[in-house]
Description:
Layout: H1 2-17, H2 39-70, H3 76-110
Helix pairs in contact: 2-3
Amino acid sequence: MKKQLSTFVLSIVIFFVAATKVLAQNPIQNPVNPAFGNISSIVSSLSAFILPAATLALLAMIILGGFTKLTAAGNADQEAKANKILTYAVIGFVIIIVAPVVVGLIGAIFGIQLIGN
């Protein structure tokens, strides 16, 4: 019993003597990522990701449409499918080109710079 009591007392003493400063009382310096601080930085960050991804998707669709057209071998359904793919790829290309212009126009109307921060 004495051994258990001395072990307990020694544990308590070590617990209080060996305590270290935790620094948990300090506030977080910047809890919000500065890239998402306001709407213009959000749009700029998203456009930096979406435009290259859309360009890669456009390239993939053009390759897929061309491959489908080449392998159609006179099949009218496959040629129509390839033409649809290529048409939608061209529409996507127009959207990729027009989207930054529209975002810039909206930014100019509201007086903020949305792309290129």
